[in-house]
Amino acid sequence: MSDRWPDNRVTALFGIEHPVVQGGMIYQSGAKLAAAVSNAGGLGLLGAGSMRPDLLREQLVKCRGLTHKPFGLNLPLFFKHAREAMEVALEEGVRIFFTSAGSPKKAIGPLKEAGCTVVHVVASPVLAKKCEDAGCDAVVCEGFEAGGHNGREELTTMVLTPQCVAAVDIPVLAAGGIATGAQLAATLALGADGAQIGSRFAITAESSGHERWKQAVVDAGPADTQLVLKSQQPVRLLKNDFRDQVTNAEARGAGREELAALLGTGRARRGMLEGDVEGGELEIGQVAGLMDDVPTVAEVFTRLLTGYDEACRRLGAGE
Ligand SMILES: Cc1cc2nc3c(=O)[nH]c(=O)nc-3n(C[C@H](O)[C@H](O)[C@H](O)COP(=O)(O)O)c2cc1C
Description:
- The chain has 319 residues and is α/β, with parallel strands linked by helices.
- It is 43% helix and 15% strand.
- The protein has helices at residues 9-14, 31-39, 53-66, 82-91, 105-113, 125-134, 157-167, 181-189, 199-202, 211-219, 241-251, 256-263, 267-273, 297-315; strands spanning 20-22, 44-47, 71-76, 96-100, 117-122, 138-142, 148-149, 172-175, 194-197, 225-228, 235-238.
- The site of flavin mononucleotide has 29 residues, from strand 3, strand 9 and helix 9.
């Protein structure tokens, strides 16, 4: 066990070495990525949001074959197969659930009855408190910088984290804009018990995303992402032709149906899995501008820990 984080509530809750969770990510976090993160001492999560139940079962079995360490499942509650995905995961022995995109109230009953640890993703301290009252074991507070679907609140991680820490007694994981060890140290300094990291793990060798999509992120500059679709379901993505189509449609007041047709069901798959980097939806956080290579997960952990130690030294922590 690492002596960097004594008495850490996140490592204790999940039985892991480092207080780092890999966020569930559509078309990125299959068995290979989740197992690599768990093997490196973090908590890997399979992302159910882009898997039909049969594929999810296959990936859960595969993940169990790749790691003996704990791993969990990210379950976006608006996902049309959410109920089936939950049943499959329970049958396959998953006991750690990170739910998102919806209220955890309905889902938490069956999960708690099955003895699960349940964590919900929120974008405001009010919602964090509701999760605690509903019986969640921890919350992830996800700031405006984060890749993928996001809250409408526009609270940055820097501001949201201390508010959530003040609002609840359960452990808080900060998410959004964390890709380096110094950023990890900053979130712990803000009172978080750990971090959920998405984008950095999406751009690794083990992520199932297409190589062209990973390269597009590596090539991205500091201001190349944008939060779009605030009128419907806000999502942070990389600026490309698809982003232009969406923002033009929004600007001329396109309604829900037209935007839904534009998005279709396949744009994210097309962009991130099939590598159509202009016509597809490329979900990534502001940290895109900080990433300039495609390392392995083990290398990401080495950098996170080295960077964390350097940041602590700079601050004179423990002296
Ligand atoms: C490509 C991509 C796909 C994502 N898909 C999901 C998802 O299916 N479910 C979910 O709860 N969050 C999803 N997220 C959010 C991540 O789990 C995580 O909270 C977020 O990426 C953290 O911010 P960061 O990108 O700055 O690290 C996604 C993020 C990215 C970048």
